[in-house]
Amino acid sequence: MPKMAARYMLSKYWDGRLPVDPFAIARSANVAVEHEADMEDAFGRFEIVNGRPHIYINPDEPGMRQRFVLAHELGHFALKHGRHFVDTSREFAPVQLDEIENQANRFAMELLIPGFAVNILIEKRNITNFIRLTDAFAVSQLAMKLRLKKLRWL
């Protein structure tokens, strides 16, 4: 389900350029995105406000994390998980036991690192250097490693 939801969002709202811009995708999907100070230990939050989806991102987090948090929160929206989520570091652990948070993490990986785009870079453009791939998708090395394992490139 996360894979199909991410593919749908990409097909409908992505401009096809790397790195995938989750902020542009959110705007195109009519999801309001705001940076909110004083989120304490929260990385991000999703909620429905007056019928419109809103995502709040902690501006104190590094840019790469903000991209992943936004993609994760978009996952809550796209997967129709409910009206309100507050996500801290616990929800972004590589091994997530909570199924809803696991789905949102899988959605984020699919959105930011589309499998077909990885395959094109590796097979057609012969880009096999791990750092170049990581930079092309503007994700952490851990995210890229997990994604390449999932796609059976590692």
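(ticket continues) Second input and output from the same batch:
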Amino acid sequence: MNENHRLGARIREMRQSQDMSLSELADEIGKTSSYLSQVERGLAEPSITALREIAKALGVPIFYFLVDDRDKNAVIRKDERKKISYPSSDSQVELISPDLNRQMELVEIRLQPGEATVENPLPHRGEECTLVMEGRMYIEIGEKDFELEPGDSIYYVASVPHKIVNVGEEELVLISAITPPNF
């Protein structure tokens, strides 16, 4: 199957999964049903502009149609995770998401008692949600601070300087979802 056929099949699959007819999508993007049918069958290659319109109408990012199927459903085995590091920290950080070329990054962070993610609170762009899996976590976000236990989570705007510290007697294990990716 050539690239046009793969692209067309992905568009058709997404359209059908949303119970949208060919003519409904064509109307939404200001094209004819005939044109869209040719795109879906791999007989016509949409321009980048047309592909953006299709992606917008279907509510998916344009890259959804451009990345290989294998990349969309990437399985990352625990022993194959990429290790990353915070500046000036000995914490263990593993990338749970496939890579940093996505719209979101998921990391597992392990801190020993008394250890912090950074020496001084640091900001980064985007938003973050952190879930405590094991141990006790102290987090400073701007002028506020919170203490969390296993099962607790916190969602915050990451552009506010923040810092995480293990205030427990055992290893702190947490999962953080960060968008957009920052490492």
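Agent notes: The chain has six helices and nine strands. The helical segments are 3-17, 22-29, 33-40, 48-58, 63-66, 69-72. Closing as not reproducible unless the customer responds.
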